[in-house]
Amino acid sequence: MGIVVAVVVVLVLVVCACFCGGGRLLGSSGPDTATAEPYDNGYYDDEPEPSWSPPQPLQPPAPATAPADGPGRYPVTYEVTGTGSVDLQFYDGDGYFIRQDKVRLPWRMTLRVDDPNRVLVSATRSGGNPGGFRCTTTVGTRPPVTDVAGPDDWQVQCHANRVR
Q: What is the pLDDT of residue 164?
């Protein structure tokens, strides 16, 4: 009787070894419940998914007409003339790049800067502007820099120095 019990135990161990270890030897180990289920996004169906908006660029409420640390050494005049409206971009007295949308023409700003080479005004056609427009930038006693946009052009740019 002891031999029969020993044979049964050995057969049970062999069968268990075949089921448990044989699958691993062949490369399949049965279903993994952690990866067999679809991924959960972590939200309930009745909750809206959170949305992300990029942060808005830092822009002062009004352009500076002089640097924050003093009156500025160089006078600058920006001017955009023509008809209709344009979207403006320019450096203010503190060196911030200011954007203003749908500005009615003509537009003019005078300010003072410490870096005479960080001067730029750009005007882009907006609001169905039908005509041409032009920009002029004057820094101190330098000759004015002018750019002209005809009826088919869409943008003008005036820098501190003439672009060659």
A: 47
Round to whole Å and give the CA distance between 41 and 19: 35
> If residue 13 lies in a helix (H) or strand (E), which one and from where to where?
helix 2-26
* Closest to 149 in 3D by CA, of 138, 136, 162, 163: 136
CB 29 within 8 A of CB 23: yes
- Please indicate whether residue 6 or residue 158 has the higher confidence score (pLDDT): 158
Q: Percentage of the chain surpassing pLDDT 70? A: 70
Helix (H, G, I), strand (E, B) or coil at 34: helix
Separation between Cα atoms, residue 57 and residue 43, nearest integer Å: 31
Distance CA 36, CA 109 (A): 66
- Comparing 35 with 102, which gets the higher pLDDT? 102
> What predicted TM-score, i.e. pTM, was given to this entire model?
0.61
Pseudo-torsion of CA 86, 154, 81, 140, nearest 10°? Answer: 100
Q: Determine the Cα–Cα distance for residues 47 and 143; give it in Å rounded to an integer.
A: 62
Q: Judge contact between 49 and 89, C-beta under 8 A.
A: no
Which residue in 14, 33, 100, 34 sits closest to 62, CA to CA?
100
